[in-house]
Amino acid sequence: MGKSASKQFSEEVLRSHNEYRRQHQAPALKLSSKLSRDATRYAESLASTRILKHSTESSRGSW
């Protein structure tokens, strides 16, 4: 079974981002499934309320 479209998109964005970082001698980044999951959950929460705001520090996990 193939990768999901969102997984492929995430990997392509990461590749492009790391290529740009390489041009500036910055170390490559890697995907964090926990960070991605938490960010998606928070984005969905913001979308449901239609209010853009920062999360509270206590609601953030440790990455």
TrEMBL record:
One Pfam family this sequence matches: CAP
Domain SCP: 14-61
InterPro entries assigned: CAP_dom, CAP_sf
Annotated TM spans: none
Region described as Disordered: 1-36
Taxonomy, superkingdom: Eukaryota
Gene3D superfamilies found in the cross-reference section: CAP
Compositionally biased spans, kind Basic and acidic residues: 9-22
This protein's name: SCP domain-containing protein
Organism: Anguilla anguilla (European freshwater eel)
Lineage start: Eukaryota, Metazoa, Chordata, Craniata, Vertebrata
